[in-house]
Amino acid sequence: MEKNKKHKVMIIILIAAVILLAGALVTVYIMSNQPKEVTAPDSAGVGGEIVDNWDPNIDNEPTHGVDDAIIPGYGNAEMKAGDTTLTLSIGNPSENTVGLFATLIVDDKELYRSPLLKPGQGITRIPLNETLEKGTYNAYVLYQITDLNNPDTKLNSVRSALELIVK
Amino acid sequence: MKVNKLLAIVLTGVLMVGSAISVSAADTYTLTQDNPTGDRDTEVTAEIKAPGEVWYEVAVPTKVDFGILNNVTGDADTQAFDIELIDKSASVDSVYVAVRDTTDADAITDATLSTKFFKLENETTGLVLGYDYLNETGASVLTETTPEDNNYNYYGIVDGLTTIGETYNCTLSLPMSQLSGKLTDEYAGVYTGTIEFYSRATVSAP
Fold first, then answer.
1. Which has the minimum average pLDDT: A89-103, A104-118, B114-128?
2. Alpha-carbon Rg for chain B in angstroms
3. Which of residues 103-162 of B touch A (CB under 8 A)?
4. How many domains does chain B have?
5. DSSP label at residue B29
């Protein structure tokens, strides 16, 4: 009799444990489907790859004229000495109606030249054609504006200055 | 005894699974520098850009077109345009914009012009016309500002755009004295030139 009572208690404990486990699983399922905070886009793409959904990650709506071009600007960029890739978000904002060619110039040397970037296209991992030693460099991204229908036609250009820190 | 063993195994499994669930439940929302307690109601109030990201955007004209020049009696033909600060992050105090001096002084021989002017060229004949940039006060950027010390001969247009949506009105001025008495077949044609702008962000010291 006592043995049966013991068994019954153990079975009740077992059932309670299973119910607790099921409840925990349901709770986790509900919480994991809540909307998550938006984090910055991952810039660790393939070196040299042009993407079609390039985002300058700036939220304000532009109000520029139809004959204007929106050109990105920078503060600084960082890389390690000897690296052959620089993380730098170069691109043509999707609001533009012109093409852009982007050239990275460091100490008067051209380290990268992009193909034609159509509106919305960009690159975040820049393959460099030479390495740099430790130091701080004056760098520029020279954006050459072109006619999308005739990319050989050079229009105005913008030299966006930045400080390149090589560690 | 068998029931005891079964119970022990099941309880051990429940405890293990429960531990795994409590670990994964901790990362269902992101802890950030502005949200260290994980409180989802905390708002991020400042956006600091990382190196290599886009810190600001400016809008500039894609081209400048003086059209057909036929007013030889006036002082200058003018073309206005705006430079606009489209966006900037909290990392940026202001954005400085300049234009590059592309003047080839030897190519501009008209005695009525100063030696430093920006250049328009007729690609067919090679003939050159000079034009100037005027800032919002009507002063020439070539006479009012000094070049950027970067070996590129940039002349400042705007000392600092600080507010998103802020615009700066510039004027290109083509002195018509260059064409006085010269509207012949020799000077007829299309004169083109390009503007190279320069932009730089000013950031606060950390």
1. B114-128
2. 31
3. 150, 152
4. 2
5. S
* DSSP reduced 3-state for A158: strand
Which two tokens mark A143? 């954006």
Q: Tell me the pTM.
A: 0.70
Average pLDDT over residues A154-163: 93
CA distance B181 to chain A (A): 31
C-alpha–C-alpha distance, residues B11 and A18, integer Å = 9
Distance of alpha carbon B206 from alpha carbon B201, whole angstroms: 15
Say if residue B65 is in the same domain as residue B21: no
**CATH number, domain containing residue B139:** 2.60.40.1090
Whether residue B68 is found in the same domain as residue B37: no
Residues B155 and A128: their CA atoms lie apart, in Å, by: 30
Query: A29: which 2 tokens?
Result: 């399922």
Q: Which of B11, B61, B196, B165 is nearest to A70 (CA)?
A: B61
Instruction: Count the Cβ atoms, other than its own, within 10 Å of residue A49.
Output: 10
Chain A neighbors of B161, CB-CB under 8 A? none
How far is residue A58 from each of residues A41, A130, A146, B29, measured CA to CA in Å?
12, 31, 23, 23
All residues at 6 or more sequence positions from B97 whose CB lies less than 8 Å from its CB, including other chains: B58, B60, B83, B156, B157, B158, B161, B168, B197, B198, B199
Q: Is the pLDDT of residue B86 over 90?
A: yes
> Is A71's Cβ below 8 Å from some Cβ in B?
yes
Question: Distance between CA atoms of B197 and B157, rounded to whole angstroms?
Answer: 10
Strand partners, B79: B172
pLDDT per residue over B4-56, tens digit each?
Answer: 666 666 666 555 555 544 444 433 333 344 444 444 444 444 567 788 999 99
Contact B57 A74 (CB under 8 A): no
On whether any CB of chain A is under 8 Å from the CB of B29, the answer is yes
pLDDT at B115 over 60: no
- Tens digit of pLDDT for each residue in A1-54? 566 788 888 888 888 888 888 877 877 666 655 544 333 333 344 567 888 888
DSSP at B5? H
Q: Residues B15, B96: one domain?
A: no
Of the candidates A114, A67, A126, the residue with the CA atom closest to the CA atom of residue B60: A67
> Do B171 and B118 meet the contact criterion of CB atoms below 8 Å apart?
no
ipTM over 0.95: no
